[in-house]
Specification:
Radius of gyration: 46 Å
Largest sheet: 6 strands, antiparallel
Helix content: 55-70%
Shape: elongated
Strand content: 5-15%
Number of helices: 29
Number of strands: 16
Length: 755
Amino acid sequence: MKKIPMILQLALILFCIMAIPTAILTWYSGSQIIENSEAAIGESTLAGLNANRKLNENALANLAQDTSRLAATNIFEPIRSVDTYSELNSNYNNVSRSLSVFKELLNLNRRVDGVYSSYFHLDGSDYVISTDSSITKLEHYESLEWTTKALEGRRGISGVWVPRKLDSGVNVVSYVYPLNRLSSTTRGLIVVNMRESQIGDYLHATEVGDNNTMLLESDGKVISYNDKSLLLTDGFELPFLREMLTEEANEGYSFHELDGKRLVYAWSRSDVSGWWNVTWSSMDELMSKSRDMQGNIILLTGAIILLGTVLAVLLATWLSRPLRQLVQTIRAKSDLGVVNKNELAFLDLAFKRMQEEEESLFQLLQEREQDTRSLAVHHLLRGEITPRITEVFPEACYRIAVVSIDQYRRYVSNTNVETRSYHRYLLNTKYESLFPEGILARSVYHNDGCIVIVMNFSPDGYEHSGGQIHQALETIRDQSSELLGHSVTIGVSDLADTLEMVTQRLFEAMELIKQRIINGAGSIMYWQEEEENSRKYMDSESSERRILNFLDAGNLDGIIKELQLIRCQIGSEENISYDNIMFIYHQLIGATIKHLRENHIGTGRMIMGKGNIYSILAAMDTLDELEEYLHEFFREIVQSLDRSADDTNHGERIIQYLKGNYREEIVFEDMAKEIGISYSYMRKIVYEQTGKSMIDFVNQLRIEKAKELLLDTEFTIKQIAAEVGYFNVQSFNRFFRKYEGMPPSSYKSAKSKSS
């Protein structure tokens, strides 16, 4: 960049200021167009699907109403006593009455488009009056056994809609309406066959372009579709349908990739019949206008950027003229030896050289003096006495103060390396200037958040300034807390009158810092010689046993009270050591983990993510932090043990309930309320207990019972299906094949041969 002329650099900067935001705006607006277009297409597709669904529902509802009105008339009354075909044809009156029924059925067909045929059958009679075969014997007409099966699950007095294929090969959706006491004194059955193709026309009424629309029963059976080979098959086997239609939403839309094409799917469920209406179409055709708009925006953006480039060059030439004239003047009056550089680089080097020549000598001397002094102090703290040290500390007496940052791990996690380095620089500078006259202080960073202050003074000077030193340390504590956002603890060693004793005094100050765990954060502590054997040892074995007993009982309050008792015992011991305190808590943690493992309770999940527990304890500054950490530690263990027990108890109740009620139609949401847990939690427990979903587990129980009935009884397939909880043979066959790989009849034959 330094070799590129300034005018070009300025032009490039102006270009980037204009072009980059413009390009980003173009990209964002284009993506928003696509995104909003997709959302609008999805909403439009769903709205069209609902319109088609309502059109189809209205047509079927009209046909059902016309059928019920016909049933309410007295047209069937004159022939209700005629049970045989021969009796019907035995006299003119009976024939005339039957023809009247025939005409009414024809009128019923004409009221709604797409009716293929309709017929009436009198209960117990051997004839059928139909629009496609007139009056004919029942034995010459299609079998009516399917109507009995269709009416098994009927509720109320209305009829039922049944998709099926006639013997003639025509696919229809039949409306089966039994005459009842409320509508007629005649006992019989009216069947109206609506062509499947007419329902398909209703479903495609508002569609534009290459769309696919499908009508399915609630269990997934295909009622209407363009591909007639898929009629009456399981539509859930088609891509994405099971995933979408088994969700809780009764309508919606989504986007999917299939064979490299992006498709929009929309689905809607009828509140009346429970049937699913599904449609899908290609997004490539629907999004063509949006993509054309996006391309036009890109072309317009390119033209704007090109024009902006020309303007940027002209503006850069005008703005850089004064600076170029200044460079020409400097080059004419001085020879800096700068070649192949642009104007900005030339001026930068010129000013840098002038500044370097002025400051380099002073800076070099100052840095050398400071580094030499700090290095000498570091050597002294390690016990290495260098010749330079007598110049740094001219007096005979020394005292060491260690300033330690409280909660240092939290401080490190909240600051970066550069900030911590800057803090050390400021603190070292402040500390050396806060001590009274007559006391020379040198400050260096030691390790792990500790700054060591070496105080050097004459014996006489120290005796008169003890109070001023304490005041200086209080100022150090307050200013450090304000700068760092953390309190600091200060440990002050005993007096040393030789350089060789400085290392020992550093040890004393560091030992005082450990007493922060008892005295609390933000303390200023002074070293005091202790009498021999004055340190007391405290044992907490009895407390450990009580805590483990409370843990087995799940008594968290008891554990917390016992931890408070340990805390009080530690606080009451005046001379207890830091090592003894850490041993007590380390021993408690170790005993707890050992106890859990001896009872075959996995500890990995309970302490996962906590890191090295013993290192965490060692990094804590006060008893308050230790106690708070242990409260949370034991709370998580007790909660984990409670969850494990609850899962086991709920799991046993759920499995027993399913095994006792699998023959019934179980409503899982009601089952969850009865047990007293949420539905999602119940699903999770069943999967963890059995490795299967609840639906799969119930179907597995049904199929296992069906296998026993197939081998041990002479029940028919239909009887066995009803016995194990399936409402129709088709569902039973489908699930049996899914779990056993063969239909029930083949399974029974195979087992009979093998036995």
